[in-house]
Design a protein that fits this description.
By secondary structure, the protein is an alpha/beta fold. The chain has 10 helices and 9 strands. Helix 2 packs across helix 9 and helix 8 runs antiparallel to helix 9.
C-alpha cells in the first residue's frame, strides 16, 4: 500500500493500557492478554481482589433481580461468573455467554459442566462491537469487567441496545474512579505495585496484569460513563458505587 491509499481508519489510534496503539491492533492485543491468563483467570481474580469480586458480582445480581424464564446475554462473559449467578437465581432462565477469547469460554464450559448448568447455557465466540445476535432477542444484557477492554465503547453500547427487547435491561459492572484523592492514591499504589508483581509470581506474566491496571485507570468515571449509556438510547440510567468507587454498577433500560 502506498501513502496515497491510506484511509482515516489507518490513522485512528486508541489506548491499550497507557500505550497508544492503532485502533485495529487493540482487539488482537486484548485477545492475547486473555488467552494468556485464561487458565489462571479465576484463581488470579480471587487473589488480586481478596475475593471481593465475588461480593461485587453478587451485588450486581441483587440489583438485577433475575426473574424466571428471562434470556440473558452476558457479553465479555469469560469463564461464566455472571451467567452462573444469574441462572442460580432464576429457574428456567437461559444464558448466552459471548466472548472474543475462546480459551476463556473453554474454561467456563468446564465449570458449567461441574455445576450442572450446562443445558441452560450457550457459549458463543463474538465481538461486543458486532454481536452475532438478532435485534430484540434478549431480556437482559450484562457485561462485567469487559467494557473497558472494548476498542469502541460506544459501538458496544449501541449493540447492547439493539439486541435487547423493548423493556430490556442493561447492567454493567466495571472498575471505576474513587471520588477521594487520598484513597485513589493508596489504591493506585496497591494496583501498580502489587498486581503486576502478583501476575509475575503466580502466572509468570507481568505484562498482562500491567495492562489490566492501566486499563482500569483509563476508563471513564461514573458520571461520564452514565452519559455514554444515555447517549446510546438507554433511559433511567443510574449507578451505584461499590467499595467506595473502586468498582461501579451502571443500570439502564431500553424503554
Ligand atoms: C476481565 S475479563 C471478564 C470476565 C467476566 N465477565 C468476569 O467478570 O469475570 C474480560 C473479558 O472480556 C473479553 N473481551 C474483551 N474485549 C472484548 C470484545 N470486544 N468482545 C467480546 N469480549 C471481549 C475478554 O476476552 C475477557 O474474557
Amino acid at each position: 500500500m502506498t501513502d496515497g491509499d491510506k484511509t482515516d481508519a489507518d490513522d485512528r489510534t486508541t489506548h491499550f493500557g497507557f500505550r497508544t496503539v492503532a485502533e485495529d491492533a487493540k482487539a488482537g492485543l486484548v485477545h492475547g492478554v486473555f488467552t494468556n491468563v485464561a487458565r489462571r483467570y479465576d484463581r488470579m481474580n480471587d487473589l488480586m481482589s481478596g475475593g471481593v469480586h465475588r461480593i461485587w458480582k453478587d451485588a450486581m445480581m441483587d440489583w438485577l433481580a433475575p426473574r424466571p424464564g428471562q434470556r440473558l446475554l452476558d457479553v465479555a462473559g469469560g469463564t461464566g461468573d455472571i451467567a452462573f449467578r444469574f441462572l442460580r437465581r432464576a429457574p428456567d432462565a437461559t444464558a448466552t455467554v459471548c466472548d472474543m477469547t475462546e480459551s476463556m469460554l473453554v474454561e467456563g464450559q468446564r465449570r458449567a459442566d461441574a455445576e450442572s448448568l450446562a443445558e441452560r447455557l450457550d457459549w458463543v465466540v463474538g465481538d461486543a462491537m458486532v454481536l452475532p445476535f438478532d435485534d430484540a432477542s434478549f431480556d437482559v444484557y450484562t457485561i462485567s469487567f469487559g467494557i473497558r477492554n472494548v476498542t469502541r465503547i460506544e459501538d458496544a453500547l449501541a449493540e447492547a441496545f439493539r439486541v435487547l427487547r423493548p423493556g430490556g435491561r442493561l447492567m454493567v459492572l466495571e472498575f471505576s474512579q474513587i471520588p477521594n484523592s487520598a484513597l485513589q492514591w493508596a489504591y493506585d499504589r496497591y494496583s501498580f505495585n502489587v498486581i503486576p508483581a502478583l501476575g509475575q509470581a503466580v502466572a509468570n506474566d507481568r505484562d498482562s496484569y500491567q495492562y489490566l491496571v492501566e486499563s482500569i485507570r483509563r476508563f471513564p468515571d461514573q458520571e461520564a460513563f452514565a452519559a455514554m449509556i444515555r447517549r446510546a438510547g438507554f433511559e433511567q440510567v443510574k449507578y451505584r458505587n461499590l467499595t467506595m468507587g473502586v468498582a461501579a454498577l451502571h443500570s439502564g433500560w431500553k424503554l
